[in-house]
Structures
1.
Amino acid sequence: METAIYLRVSTDTQSTDSQRHDVERYCQLVDGRNLHFYEDTISGGKASRPQLDRLVRDMRKGRIERLVCYKLDRLGRSLTHLALLLDEMNRLGVPLICTSQGIDTSNESACGKFQLAVLMAWQNSNGR
């Protein structure tokens, strides 16, 4: 099982270096083994992205233990897409950790579970 690291920038004039540094530092503190990077250069508004699609396939195959990203908006800008992705991750038992926002949906974090529940409830109230 691997820790998936998802990095994304919108244009090729941007760099993922600061995201990478932050998530690698977090992973070294927690458990720096078996890191697998997925990196896209594409708008977060697009639901289909090459590396995110590969990440989802790997999660479905049971290869991913947890997903770490710098910030929730790196996964996506569309709340609907995020809600669907987070719902699938929850069903697959893959926690999400957003290092810069204190989000951790693993069983060890009641606060992160609460944040996820609020996000999902807000999405459901807006006509998912």
2.
Amino acid sequence: MNQLGKQLRQLCLGSFADNYAAMAEACEKNSQSHIEYLQSLVTHEIEYRHHRRIDRLLKQAKLPRTKNLKSFDAKRIAGLSLSKIKQLASGDFIDRCENILIFGNPGTGKTHLSIALAQEWCLQGRRIFYITAAKLIQDLLKAKEELKLHALIKKLDRFEVLIIDDISYTACSRDETDVLFQLLSERYEMRSILITSNLPFAKWDCIFKDTMTTTAAVDRLVHHSSILELNAESYRMKNAKQKQEKGGEN
């Protein structure tokens, strides 16, 4: 590597170092000025850094698989507003520290929609973190036992949106309820939360165990929130039926 290349890397200008020679040759052939050459290098560096940041944000989000809004069939869900989904995808609610609550039967696309929205927000440069409710509670409880609960909650606070998937599948003990409630309280009006659940609020007492804690948790989540209801037949069940019907025709 020549001296200029080394100096550019010392300045953390990786794209400059990789492309300055080839772009200089191209600019010379096109009779471009030194200013135009520098502009080309700067533009390339900005795009390079942007793509690296997006890749880093997607990796940090820990999304379990790749989903997008184009592959989410919203038309099959009666009453689901496409304009509302687009509005939420813009990420404006994040600046207001509002929440999103997605309800529906198993297989209706709650996880798909939450991951697709998360991907949109990451592409906008937002810091997102996805975790299942079961894993989150395990992590919170372990942190409490190790006297590191505050540190973990502070770590999660770095993320603008915390996605808690399948909260209804979790049967909580009193200790588990306490740490989950503490997390929800800490993020209230400070950071956004997206929660998916197949249980309506009326049945959340089986999660938080007592009426007072359930009411307090629901109150914090519902205040400043958008609620999406995915009332439709299970997508997986529908596919299974279609395959079975096709098999019967052969």
3.
Amino acid sequence: MVHLKPRDHVVVQSVAYAYGLLMTGDAADRDRGQAILRQVISTQDTRPNSAWRGVFPWRLEDKWETIKNPDLNSAVFVGSTLAGIINMDRKQPTLDADLRQQIEQAAKLSVEEVIHRDVEASYTNMALLSTSFAAAGRSCGVCRGRASMLKQSWTWCSSWPATAHATNISAQHIWRSTSAAHTAFANTPSPMIFAAKADAMIDHLWKEIALSYHAPTFQLAGPHNRS
């Protein structure tokens, strides 16, 4: 696990590290990545009646019996990476069978938490990430047949103001890349409309960055463009 001084092992950064290890194609990296993923998944709150079901702690050392105010955003952060791993594994099998099943279940719980939470569009970066995660969960088959994810994605993106200063362009690209895998349901648009909405938002966000770019110092101005 990735650790911060002195001995805290962090969950969000570790799942991203594991994803990178699996991408190399090296056998030793694969084993290390899978070992990390097993630890990450073991930290998820899976208690049936918990208000935090599907959420991850920030640290491996945190225990759900004593944790205070866990960050609900962790379900999106970790879940999105797990969805990417699932998608990669479906294209080129990499994971052990038992771990594949565990990852799919963990991602499913995270998707359900995100939809249940239903953040407002004014919480711009989390609305964007939630949309992309719901789209990714649908496209990689984490929740097969769940029309609610597609409907919730469209509800979020339809609510964004035209001048929204979003913080996460990568979420839009994830959403754009997965939109073609959508199947339209009642009261939801076609995949083409989903993709067009994502393209419009991506174009808007890059224009925002261009307007905030300070060429002499090679820096972006404004915290809303930190990503």
4.
Amino acid sequence: MKKKALITGISGFVGSHLAELLLAENFEVHGIILWRSKTENIDSFKKKLILHDGDITDLSSLLKILKKVKPHYIFHLAGQSLVSASWQSPAQTLYTNVIGTSNLLEAITNLKDKTFDPVVQIAGSSEEYGLVFSREIPIKETNPLRPISPYGVSKVAEDMLALQHFRSYKIKTIITRAFNHSGPRRGEVFATSTFAKQIAEIEKGLKKPVIYHGNLEAKRDFTDVRDIVRAYLLAVLKCKPGEVYNICSGKKGTFSIKEILSILLSLTDVSVKLTKDTKRMRPSDTPSILVGDHSKFSLITGWKPTINIKKTLNDLLDYWRERV
């Protein structure tokens, strides 16, 4: 009998890649999707999925879906995932992410019995670490959490809810903190994707040869989304409930935003002018260098990133070339 997996936010960037991986691994894949959500990320394999209309901010809909599906594994990816948007709508970000996670965990707790005792992955973020000092690089899971964005605060709250439900009700929660990740289907509001889309538009003569950018000096730890979802699957199969695990590339996968842009420009023949756009700057930013340590996770699972940054960005650029 196939194992059942349920993905909240299945039509999103990461959710769609995870769904593809689970299908390839012979899981029965269920997904929760808002009626108004765009499905272009999953349209090519949508018929292989079992989709359920639901909303993580509606406890009754979650109870109904979980009671019907009774999945063995739950991957909680739904929520407001944009750091920049969290500055514009902090209350909405907190409501969606914190209340949504609380509802999911409460629904699982209410239905938990001998026939339903799932492993639950809670998708945290490196944004939880926030203010990190140079002496703390590379960042371990034990590093203090000092979030400096409403989004980061919301993800810390999700972590705490997951730990509380593990300790209070023995819900098998596993927290993963993914660092920056990119690849095809990445939303255009993220730096790597907005650069790729602008290049694709310039190539086709749809816009002037000018690329607008925010802070180019920050260095970030980048991993391909396809390596990230492979890690998520390994997390529920091999990791210990009630624990936190960094998912990242480490020093070898660390690049400045300027370097990322340079790699993208090396993949095209167009010449461009770079222009800073103040609207793309955040009220406060994470440190100039943000590098993670994934040794705890890799020791248990054997995972390591396999896709290099040039392939990640080339695939992302090709994705936008097909769409502009």
